[in-house]
Amino acid sequence: MPVSPPPGLEIRPARASDMTSIVELLDSAPDDAAVYQYPRLSDYPEALRPMHRAWVRGLLQDPTSLTRIAVLDGNVVVGFSSWARRAPNPDGPDSLHRIKISEPLILDEEEDHDSREGLPSIEPDKARAEAIARVREHLSRTSPFQSVPRYSLQGLAVHPSYQDRGIGRLLVRWGLEQGAAENVPVLTAGETRGVRFYTSKDLGFQVVKGSEWWLSRDCKDMSEQEAREGGNRGWESIHGGVSGAQVVWFPPGLSLEIGGVTYRG
Questions:
Q1: Which residues, other chains included, contact 17 with Cβ-Cβ below 8 Å and sequence gap of 6+?
Q2: Which of 211, 131, 161 is nearest to 29 (CA)?
């Protein structure tokens, strides 16, 4: 049963000085796709640090991304979220573009300690990495929400020591409040644990119809029936597979028919 957030928890926009702490947080909380692609990751959690740093650096310097974090004691980063807002493009009324929602941060290059020197090096399982890339690319091409103005949750992580304490929900609710204020949906994607989290009663996301996917231990696509019958129980280690989907949240009162499906808040 979830417990209350830790006393003194603060949710705020990230600062330049938070970058290293955010990267270390991401090292500690890999998502299911990373675990699937890097079978040795639990032994070398810091091996993905260069990749995490490059990604976070890009987010913090991008005015169309807003990174918000959960902080304890003023500087201990225990949660992370990153957001984007897609709106109609005035130069192309039939398309969307990302709009400015933050001020880009000036990062000190001298404080960038991220090199591979001293860090373990691990390679992904090639077949699994290719399978994950394939399903993600397919989702990006076929998503019925491509032309729908929305907020997008680009990433979410909570330190393992502070999970199940409501921190992830607090980070997500900021985006839901923004979506409600502007009367637009909130879209994200996740793997097995993420989908369960987003679609919980507390948050109320809906699975986007047709977006679910399942991969077996040996990277084969599986049907929903095969997965439900136990050939692959998603991320559970006994089977070694992974699953995922896009999920969407609608503000109360908003109803849209998208891709032949009616979604309601």
A1: 75
A2: 161
Question: How do the domains of the chain map onto residue ranges?
Answer: 10-104+115-264
Neighbours of 115 (CB within 10 A): 10
At 223 the pLDDT is 82
DSSP secondary structure letters along 151-165: EEEEEEEE-GGGTTS
Number of alpha carbons in the 13 Å side-chain half-sphere of residue 12: 14
Per-residue pLDDT at 238? 45
Model confidence band, residue 222 (pLDDT cutoffs 50, 70, 90): confident
Residue 83 to residue 151: CA distance in whole angstroms: 7
- Tell the burial category of 38 from Cβ atoms under 10 Å away from its Cβ (0-12, 13-18, 19+): buried
Task: Return the CATH superfamily for domain 10-104+115-264.
Answer: Gcn5-related N-acetyltransferase (GNAT) (3.40.630.30)
- Secondary structure (3-state) at 140: helix
**Cβ atoms of residues 51 and 59 within 8 Å:** no
AA letter at 81: S
Q: Which amino acid is at 65?
A: S
90: Cβ contacts below 8 Å, ≥ 6 apart: none
Whose CA is closest to 86, among 104, 99, 101? 99
Segments of 115-230 assigned E as strands: 150-158, 186-191, 206-207, 213-215
